[in-house]
Write a structure and sequence with these properties.
Chain lengths: 175, 237
């Protein structure tokens, strides 16, 4: 019985022996599922049915709207948000990023990986004007609510890595 | 008439029983007059009797009239605040069911007093959560409340959310699952055409999200405690 107990304990301990790891896992789960998959994707795809294809499959489909589930299609058609909504959503998003930066800068990478993937997808596809505009809007909001107030973290942790990853594609498309 | 009586009772309890340290400084006196002390004892005695005679006023929460339900939340808050000793093991389950299950309340005029009593009860009696089926009695109505944009009380309900999170006993919920469902439900309920409501929404979303990241240790710590207890149990099995 004791051997059984110790074995059980070991298997449990291996997974949870580090409280810091568990806190980190908890935070990553929230940032990934809520900040990235809910808020950021809403911001990025607002008013752009193509956006769902690009995010979900990495490429644009000719029948992007047709392939959407009925509920999603209805949602997209209803997503004619007024500009103030996008501004407020963007501001909220940037302020959360700022909070994350203060709390644990490593957590920002959960978002920056997604942003880099989005940028690569957009650059590799032609005609994704809406998504390009949204990414530019995000950069402008980042500038307005963080950089203009003296913060350098958006450049160091978000814009810098994104440009570094995108630059080869931008250069090849220009040349 | 009923709602006025309930509100009058709540005010009387607040005035007669509220502990001296909670009263405004200018009302504080070094020695309490005898008649004030006597009034307090009498009020407590009558309060206890009223609470029992009217079965904790819970039937009023079933009233069709929002003013009566709202006044009932107010009087319950007053009892919890001024006479916490009246909440016992014998009545905590029925009170918890009525108070923590109040997210079924769809009338926005009731929500200010509803939130007051929910927050106070959760803070003073966290054990009330464990007396209920949390998922069925509290969380399911709460998710529905959020998905429906708080049934129109955004200005009152959204600012209360972070206070609510702060009062949820960690052992009553499954950390990450609870928060994922919380934010998803909140997000669904965001659609509103009013600028002030949108502002309240985004402010609450930001507050709650950062709060949950900062307080992750509460939930992880509890999980670790459960594992330690499991370990001890296994060793002694």
């Amino acid at each position: 019985m004791f051997v059984f107990s110790v074995t059980k304990l070991s298997s449990v301990s291996i997974r949870y022996n580090d409280g810091e790891d568990s806190i980190s896992h908890f935070r990553v789960t929230l940032v990934d599922n809520i900040l990235v998959k809910l808020i950021w994707r809403d911001f990025l795809t607002t008013g752009s049915p193509k956006g769902y294809d690009i995010i979900n499959t990495g490429k644009e489909s000719d029948s992007s709207v047709k392939n959407l589930s009925h509920s999603k299609k209805v949602d997209v058609q209803n997503t004619k948000y007024p500009m103030p909504y996008l501004q407020e959503l963007g501001k909220c998003f940037v302020e959360i990023l700022l909070g994350i930066h203060v709390l644990d800068v490593k957590l920002l990478s959960v978002f920056t990986v997604e942003l880099e993937d989005n940028c690569m997808s957009v650059l590799q596809q032609a005609g994704n004007v809406e998504m390009v505009e949204q990414i530019i809007s995000f950069m402008l909001l980042l500038e307005k609510h963080a950089v203009m107030e003296g913060a350098t973290w958006p450049l160091v942790y978000i814009v810098g890595p994104m440009l570094a990853k995108s630059f080869p594609i931008i250069r090849s498309s220009v040349s | 008439m009923i709602s006025s009586t309930l509100l009058a009772l709540a005010s009387l309890l607040d005035v007669l029983i509220t502990p001296q340290q909670e009263q405004p400084a200018f009302e504080k006196i070094t020695t309490e007059p005898k008649h004030a002390s006597k009034a307090r004892v009498t009020a407590v005695s009558f309060g206890e009797k009223l609470l029992i005679d009217h079965k904790h006023f819970l039937d009023f929460l079933k009233s069709q009239r929002p003013t009566i339900r709202s006044a009932t939340y107010t009087v319950l808050k007053s009892f919890i605040k001024n006479m916490p000793h009246a909440i016992t093991e014998g009545n905590i389950k029925s009170l918890a069911g009525a108070i923590l299950g109040a997210f079924n309340e769809k009338d926005p005029t009731c929500h200010p007093s509803m939130w007051d009593v929910i927050l106070l009860f959760s803070r003073r009696f966290p054990g009330g959560w464990s007396s209920l089926n949390v998922q069925k009695n509290i969380l399911n109505p709460f998710w529905n409340f959020l998905r429906n944009g708080c049934f129109g009380s955004q200005q009152v309900s959204y600012p209360a959310l972070v206070l609510f999170l702060d009062n949820v006993p960690p052992k009553a919920v499954q950390g990450d699952k609870f928060f994922l469902e919380f934010f998803k439900s909140l997000w669904v309920g965001r659609k509103t055409s009013l600028s002030a409501d949108r502002l309240a929404f985004f402010q609450a979303f930001e507050e709650c999200f950062l709060w949950s990241l900062k307080n992750a240790s509460r939930y992880v710590f509890f999980l670790l405690m459960v594992l330690v207890c499991t370990w001890i149990h296994l060793l002694h099995a």
